[in-house]
Design brief:
The protein has a single domain, classed as Hydantoin permease. 77% of the residues lie in helices and 1% in strands. It contains 18 helices and 2 strands. Helix 6 packs across helix 7 and helix 6 packs antiparallel against helix 14.
Length: 450
Amino acid sequence: MLFDLIASFLTDYLLSAVLLFTGIFLTVKTGFIQIRGLGEGLKNTYSGLFHREKTKGISPFSALCTSLAAQLGTGNIVGAGAAILQGGPGAVFWMWVSAFFGMATAFSEGVFSQLTKKKTADGEITGGAAYYIYRAVGSRAGKYFASAFSLFSVIALGLTGVAVQSNSIAVSLNESFSFPFFVTGVLLVLAASAVLLRGTKAVARFSELTVPVLAGLYFAVCFAVLIKNFREIPEAFYLIFKGAFRPEALGGAFTGISLKTVIGQGVKRGLFTNEAGMGSTASSHAISDAPSPYFQGTLAVTGVFTDTFVMLTLTALCIITVLFTGDTPKAGINSGSFAVVSAFSSVLGMKGASVFTSLSVLFFAFASIIGWNLFGKSSAVFLFSERSTGLYTLSSLAFVFLGTVCPSSLLWELTDIFNTLMVLINAPALVILSIKTDKKHFFLAKEADK
């Protein structure tokens, strides 16, 4: 009971307040970077997609794909469905709000990660939130805060986080193909080991090759669903905006949903999917061989935009147009994954939709396992030493297996709590650094020196 009360306070109240305040503050501080920098970020992204430049280290596009590998996980598929079922269509609006301000937060994370990155003894670049948190606070207190963040990061990303993703894979494969949980766990560990044990560049290369293909296929199916149900799209937007402020007026399947629940689900699930404010993707932006911090910051903006305003929105519209508009029956939808399957069944049939959703969860969640392991690894290096990476990777692989055989509700609760604890340290550090920093060097000057 006490655990539930603490978890509810952290994730439903404190998390929303801190994320929105930080996002609004940094939006003003950066001169609305999510508006003036988005076009440039998209241009840089597409340039990296079609024109691969040789770099000494990891290219900015590879770093972005590594970030997206973590962001485009089950949160955009299962998480979107769960948020709508628990918070109603209005939760989508609050996901948009948190993502809009979160783009300024992500930009700041990208910039400060570039400014504080370091080279390890073996020649690899490392960095991330722990490094700029230490600079923000300074002295001994800075070390304590950065170490606390690193500990939460190792748990939230490298342990419980990868377990959530492997759990989603195991449940999805079992529901669609009756695939044994134990066998799924063993196969996932073997597949993840083949990538993770080869180092940071292998992780970045894997992400660069898989993310564009996975996203393209998923977008194609979503567009097919929306084209078939295009007449319901206006009503879907009506439900989203009405449910964002007056959820009680929707009635039907959403009777009893409070405004607190709508906002809480939107912000909490939005954080899980785009990660802006957690400091998790900062590690991928740190390892980029970008021409300037500003450049990498605009790519971070693009990551949040792609994750929430494109992929998550497409998933949400598919679910709402098929399941919650017109005279469509609304009963019997009891899980986020089943909501997605039911939506896709309008063009693929139930069996085809089940197979496609399971494979989407498999590949997106596996990409997240790879990305999150890398993010937690940089925290392990900061917290312990470079020699800890082997033990960290083995521990992470163990949790990949455990996730396939543990209850999903417990894993989600633990992940939500540690995600929130990361935000509570990372967000204030971003605010402090933005105050200390002359913005003409770090926010407005495109060719600022590193």
